[in-house]
Structure formats: structure tokens, C-alpha cells
Amino acid sequence: MINASAPSLLVTGAAGQLGRLTVERLLTSGVSNIVAGSRDPSKLGSLADRGVEVRKVDFDDLSSLAVAFNGIHRALIVSTDAIMVPDLRLRQHLAAVNAAVRAGVEHIAYTSLPNAGPESPVPFAPDHRETERAIAESGVAFTFLRNNFYMENTFFMARALASGRVFSSAGSGRSSHVSRADAASVAAAVLASGIPGAYDVTGPSSHTIDELVAALARAVEHPVEVVHVSDDELGQGMIEAGLPPAMAAALVSMDVATRRGLQGTVTDAVRALTGHPAVSLAEFLAVSTHRAALVRPSQH
After folding, report:
1. Which CATH number fits domain 149-178+203-264+279-300: 3.90.25.10, 1.10.645.10, 3.40.50.720, 3.30.70.100?
2. What pairs with residue 107 in β-bridges?
3. pTM of the model
């Protein structure tokens, strides 16, 4: 639906989980002039049927980016998942930022990472840090959405939960998981209103790995033990289980970040930006489909 007096809003990665949810939130709120972008626009047909403009947005194709950002007032740049190839993700992000600036986009929102400074052990933290820097130095208004771990990430623990043992090197560090739905609601609110700033987007409380696994064990209704190991032991176990070394290192780094206190901040960003409280872990696990996802291998 086109409204000549309203700003045009672009969501990149709209075929992905966060991007699609953000578009859905915009539609639900009655916002017009929504543009959904994906490297494969054919995946967005159902959105086009509902009045959303669909564009090709391929961060590896500069010509597509010039067209994608044309006429856009505010853009949500959803960080890509290209974390296994050194420097690729940053090149993609910078290409998108530069194209947005050249096209005259007035406001860029970007999905980032909490505490992505030099202190972060996460191998892809520099991608976020340098993308934020490029946006901040561009002169364009911006909002950084530094999303904590998604509650949906717990679905990947289904096999470990079924085995009754979860291995971790997070120690007594705390994390503040947020539901992907809440992160999408925040992104939609920022895109619709143009609220500037930098926000740590978190759930309403933090928890240790022991507390998290205890909640998950209650959800799957059988005992699960946390086995505390060293970083090296955790990484080696992942590799022996079939994970590529680079992926294992990235996953271990999340435990290191948690152990060092980089993921435990709790904020009221969800309520402040959307007007509704963040979903708690208990509320998330009370949803039957979420509990079901914890007892089978996940594709989330």
C-alpha cells in the first residue's frame, strides 16, 4: 500500500526470521510504504500479495543495492549470517551502508551485538563494531539494536537436552535472552518512528547456564545436567560431534563472552520502544510449539 505522505521503510533480509517478523509487525501496526528486500525476491511473494513492495537486496551485488535503496527514507539493515568466511560479512555490511548513504536514506537501523568492542572474544564482533562505526561516521541518523541471544537459540539444544547433558564453559556468567518476536517488535517500532540511539535489546531478566538448563529441563519434563568444562574441552567436543572448527570456535566464544559478563545486562528497551514488556523465559517456554521444538532437532 502506497501513501505518498509517509516515509518508505525498507527491511533487508525479509526472507529471514527476524526480517520477516519485522515486516509482519509493521503490517500489523498499519504502517504503509513497506519495502521488503531479499537476495531472492521469489521468497517474498506472500508479502507482495498483501501490498508490500518487494525488491532484490543482495549485499554481494552492488547494482542491486543501488536500486534497492532508491527512494527509501528509513532502512533496517539486518546483519547477515556470513560469519564463517573472514571479512565477508563486514564487506557485505559496508556495501549496504554505503549504498544507503549514496541513495539518500535518512535513517539507518542496524542489528548489532552487545559489547562488540575490542574486549569481545566473539570472532565476528569486529564486523558489528566496524559496521556501527561506518554508520555513525556517515552523518545519517542511526539506531543500533544490540540484540542479546535469542530465546529461539535454545531450540538448537534439543539433542543435548535429550541426552540429559549440556556442556558449557560459561561458568556462572549470565545472559539475558530475548525472544525474536520482541526483537522484531523493537525493530519495527524504530523503523516506523525513526527513534535514534543505541539500545541493548534484552529479555526482562538474566540467567546462568544452570538456571537456563533447569528451565529447559522443566519444559521437556526430564532431568538435564550441566557439565562445566573448559573452553578447549567444549570446542573439541563440538568438533568431535561434527561441527567445523570455525563454527565451534564461534560457539565457544559465546560462552566466553557470557562468562566474562558481556551478555548479562538487562534493559527495559523492549518496553521503552514498543510499549509492551519483554516476554520472559518462562512465558516463552509456556508456548506449546516452543516446548515441542526443544524435543526435536531444530532448523531455527
Report:
1. 3.90.25.10
2. 74, 141
3. 0.94
